[in-house]
Amino acid sequence: MLRDHGAKYTLVADDDAPTETMGTHRRLAKRMAVLVAVALCGVAAAVTLLIALKRDVVLTPLSEESKGFKLKTYPPLVEDGGDLVVSWEGEASSTLTSRDYLTLSCGPTTGDGDYLMKKGVKETDANDHSVRFSELYMMRCNYTAVYFNYDEKTDKFKPIAKVEAGMKEPFDTPKHGHLSLTDDETAMAILFNSGSSKTPMVKYGENPQDLKFHATGTTTTYGADDLCHEPANVLGQRAFRDPGFMHTVIMTDLKPDTYYYYQYGHEGHALSHVRRFKSRPPKSTKYANFIAYADMGAYVEPGSASTAGRVYEEVMGGGYDSFLLHFGDISYARSVGYIWDQFFHLIEPYATRLYVHLDVNVEDYEC
């Protein structure tokens, strides 16, 4: 079922029940990291981020003189793919100006000029006392907004207040789920990302109420030193970021051309919704209905969300449920790590339902 939210779309799980349970092949485990790290050197992520489940909001004045001036966030916890409104109140030690601005970052920064987003207090989507940051994704870190005040005497900007907002979900929540074929025709691999290095697992079966089979898998990651050269290995909010951990778990002994339900994550921690996929057809099958496209990009690229929405509709109701071929020009991350979090968020609703083959093209190389 597809729920439309403007330019976005949301997957409703097969069991319509969110699960917040707190709860084999090394080569395939590397495949996800190689696709992201080698083929797109700049793919996401490695200043060390907060892995602990710190999700509370922290209000912090940046000087004694400005302790009466504070920032607040709404909502207090950020939903994956959601917006964050930052408002301010109280008296600052210096006069607020129309040139003031706010920055938003997630995780460690290299200085005041290192941020994900920047909003002026007089931008079109801002009102007199707040600004909105849109389409914020799970990147296994807390978001921090900083207010910069313009000082006419020095002709410089100085930070006078900040606020921190955590994620609504724990950092070990499984994200970026996508299916992959293996050399075994009776198997299917599920690959996903999280902020935890704990053993990944999957439960699966033909009945969504009885996921009687269980498998564990492998985990890998990579750092800036594993990439070739600048800009791919430069640390920064809009450069290389900690990618978290990539997990691979293989579901085996599958009957051909059969629907299976499955749920993945870390045992004893947050699990995914219950998903559904169809196993490979018999060898005698001669025809397949599939979708092929290229040049997609993530949310920053015009048309990417629309493409994803149409693909999802065709997979769900159009009969194109054999596989999907994405032949190159994948996310257009170009060494901007957080674009990969956006991209996998975008394709996850259908990439967890059918095998997606990602083919590397010239636009996907940074090295």
Automatic annotation (TrEMBL):
Write one Gene Ontology MF term. metal ion binding
Q: Which SUPFAM superfamilies match?
A: Purple acid phosphatase, N-terminal domain (SSF49363)
Gene3D superfamilies per the record?
A: 3.60.21.10, Purple acid phosphatase-like, N-terminal (2.60.40.380)
Q: Which Pfam families match?
A: Pur_ac_phosph_N (PF16656)
Q: Where are the transmembrane segments?
A: 32-53
Can you supply one Gene Ontology CC term for this chain's record?
A: extracellular region
Keyword ATP-binding in annotation: no
Q: Fetch the InterPro entries from UniProt.
A: Metallo-depent_PP-like, PAPs_N, Purple_acid_Pase-like_N
| Residues in Purple acid phosphatase N-terminal domain copies | 174-278
> Where does the protein end up?
Secreted
Using the record, list the residue span of the signal peptide; answer none if the entry has no such feature.
none
The alphabetical list of record keywords is: Membrane, Secreted, Signal, Transmembrane, Transmembrane helix
Q: Where does this protein have coiled-coil stretches?
A: none
Domain of life (superkingdom)? Eukaryota
**Name listed for the protein in its UniProt record:** Purple acid phosphatase N-terminal domain-containing protein
Q: Which organism is it from?
A: Phytophthora nicotianae (strain INRA-310) (Phytophthora parasitica)
